[in-house]
Amino acid sequence: MKFNKKMTLISAAVLMGISPVSAVEIPQTNIVQAATSQSRKVYFRKNSYVYNKKGQRIYKFKGKTAYFKKGATPSFPIQTTDEKTHYYFNTRDGKVYLQTTKIKGKQYANVGNGGYINLSNIGAISNSLLLTDQNVRVRVTRDTRVLNSKGQAGDTVVKKGTIITADGHGAIPGGDWIDDGVPQEYYHIVGTDHYLEDDNGTLLSQVQNGNTFDKLFTPQAMPKNAAVGSANNGTSYYDVNGQDMFPGFKSFQYQTFTIGGAYYFWDVKDNKAELFYYVGSGANQINLATDGGNIGKDSKHTPTGALFVKASNVNLTQGVAPEPANTAAEAEAGRNAATSSEKYSLIDAIANAEKVQASAKYKSAASSVKKDYDQAVAQAKQISASTSSTGNAVNFVIWQLNHIEQSMQVEKIKVAYPNFLSPYDRTKILTAARQQYDDNSHDVMWANHDRDLILYTFKEKASNKYDQGGTVTKLNLNDYIEANTPNIKNKKGYDSSATQASINKDKKLAKYAKMLDYDKRKSSLVAKRTTPVYQSSTKIGEGASFNVNKIRLYQTGRSIKKGNNIGIFATLIVKIKGQYYFMVQEKNTYFVKASDVKLDNFSTSTTYKKYQKMVDKLTGPDHPMDFSLYAKVKKGARYYQTDFYYGVTNKTFNVQKNRYVSFIDPYVMKYNGIYYLTGGAEFNSDFDPEGAVKVSDIISMTSKLPR
């Protein structure tokens, strides 16, 4: 929403003279005991008249014309109240609540001298945005795909003109950013997990909603009072007994701690219970600074277990502080040696943890989560074996094991049609899989015209992982998705391969659907005979909005010649009026009669085998990432441009005599009856269409460009 962005910049740069970080540090929970009336600067976001208490426009105010232009910043004796009203502005000391007057159904601010200003005309008071904690109404200005609370787009589209009710407004995790580094803000639609980008809405209510989404963000903190040029202002790390884990060393001054929980331990030195933040399992080495900020050979340290920082030593920079898992009284009671009962509870927890390590949820959890869990189990066993373990140490590791186990509970992604994934489905699936394999030894990608999700595992002892290759494993999509198919009854003669139920009951549909899973590096879908191309006069939906009953086909006048590819991205078989079609989704979506299509297994041909063997000899048995091959071509050879759909275009360039053409992720393909050497996207970390040359023009291939 344009109003919000302008106000964000005005309040930060023109009015307040305060950086956006300062605004975040306002303690929102405090309420200022403000005076009844105080002169305050008011910023007008609209041209505004002045009214009397009856809602009648007045023409003179304080001896001048009763009119203020947009952008004006006069001062008025603004009435505030100690009571919580629904309208407020923030100061460094907390919220200040505005005393408002309701006139003819609208809220007004009393500006003294018998004058009242409509709240919808006021953008800010005392250099701070005027906000409300009430729900607001917003009109959607364009068809918009909403996000969930993780910033992920789904299939739900809110139509232009829809009026939504929002109970919150602000940045969300995974949301976009606008040009000047300010996060994009969103409206939360009441009663849903849907968030609407505020650029796509017009605020209808008088005042913007001020309820932000801090609770959605993972809490983070930094050391207090970090002074530039000195590492002495970092903070110490502590263990499960509340003792300094690395005496003489501290974190760096601007270290960011991700907070995984809050726990009270007994501080033996100060003889009191102290609140600590849990900031790591201790599974990884950490960098520390000595006094004076020097980083020596001993700057890397191996933790002896879970890591903590004192809550009193850090400032929260993101999110909301977690509720403590125990109380100060419990920490005092647990400062002594663990009781038999506590030890037995720990033994049970370890037994359960070993079962978890053998479970499916553990195996599908993110690599970092598994590493943290393994470290927690190891520490739990050490604490269990020790005769001097405190009750606090025992109770914490039990909590830690439960806490990490809960993070393994990953919800499957709901998709409308598992056999017809939308681009948004694929993005969510890829994100989930990459979170599961979130270490440096793996990569996950879509492959084979986006039909396969593959796991690439780099060689363990490779000095340069991008040169040494690795192994490829096809992942099971059902591990990540579950069907949430709309209840749509197909008309007679209409169906599609989008659902397994349809495939199971229609043998001809099943036959064609099986052809969709061809290996594009070894085969292709081609026209049996010259066949017409069709398009739909109605919009082809995706995800939950797809409905085969709404497809209306017409013949375009174009055709595909016998033997030519029908298109690489054939995604679905549809049945329209009893006739089966391949639906191809490339730059445009079009349809080809299924009865006119066959599978060409070109990898069995002599030509393919000859030239692919030359490629395989250079790449080796593995799949090197970003492997480059150089092909020497004949005089007069042409280099063909390819597009993002792996098609060979008519645009060509001459290759000079004795020149080499390079390809990343090289392979041989057959396109429109001709064999080419080209480059792929699967094992190319920065894919751009690689182009192609005819294999008949190739003299030789090499992995090193001759000088």
What can you tell me about this protein's structure?
This protein is of the alpha+beta class. It is built from twelve helices and 54 strands. Strands 14-13-1-7-9-8-15-23 form an eight-stranded mixed beta sheet, with helices on one face. It has a five-stranded antiparallel beta sheet with strand order 21-20-19-16-22, with no helix packed on it. Strands 39-43-44-45 form a four-stranded antiparallel beta sheet, covered by helices on one side. Strand 48 (about 640) and strand 49 (about 650-655) form a beta hairpin. The chain is globular.
**Share of helix, binned:** 10-25%
Low-confidence stretches are 1-35, 227-231, 462-466
What separation lies between the terminal Cα atoms?
A: 57 Å
Helix count equals 12
Strand order of the largest sheet: 14-13-1-7-9-8-15-23
Number of distinct beta strands: 54
Strand composition percent: 25-35%
Largest sheet: 8 strands, mixed
Q: What spatial form do the alpha-carbon principal axes imply? A: globular
Radius of gyration: 32 Å
Structural class: alpha+beta
Mean pLDDT level: 88
Layout of strands and helices, then pairs:
Blueprint: H1 2-15, H2 20-24, E1 37-44, E2 48-51, E3 57-58, E4 60-61, E5 64-65, E6 67-68, E7 75-81, E8 87-91, E9 94-98, E10 100-103, E11 106-112, E12 115-118, E13 122-125, E14 128-129, E15 131-132, E16 136-140, E17 144-147, E18 153-158, E19 163-170, E20 186-189, E21 195-197, E22 201-203, E23 208-209, E24 220-223, E25 249-250, E26 257-258, E27 261-267, E28 272-280, E29 286-287, E30 289-290, E31 300-301, E32 307-310, E33 314-318, H3 328-333, H4 340-357, H5 360-363, H6 367-385, H7 391-407, E34 413-415, H8 423-436, E35 442-447, E36 452-458, H9 465-468, E37 470-474, E38 481-483, E39 495-496, H10 500-505, H11 507-515, E40 524-527, E41 531-536, E42 553-560, E43 570-576, E44 579-585, E45 589-593, E46 597-600, H12 606-619, E47 628-633, E48 638-642, E49 648-654, E50 660-664, E51 666-671, E52 674-679, E53 692-694, E54 698-702
Parallel strand pairs: 15-23, 34-38
Antiparallel strand pairs: 1-7, 1-13, 2-3, 2-6, 4-5, 7-9, 8-9, 8-15, 10-11, 11-12, 13-14, 16-19, 16-22, 17-18, 19-20, 20-21, 24-26, 24-33, 25-30, 27-28, 28-32, 29-31, 35-36, 36-37, 39-43, 40-46, 41-42, 43-44, 44-45, 47-50, 47-54, 48-49, 51-52, 52-53
Helix pairs in contact: 4-6, 4-7, 6-7
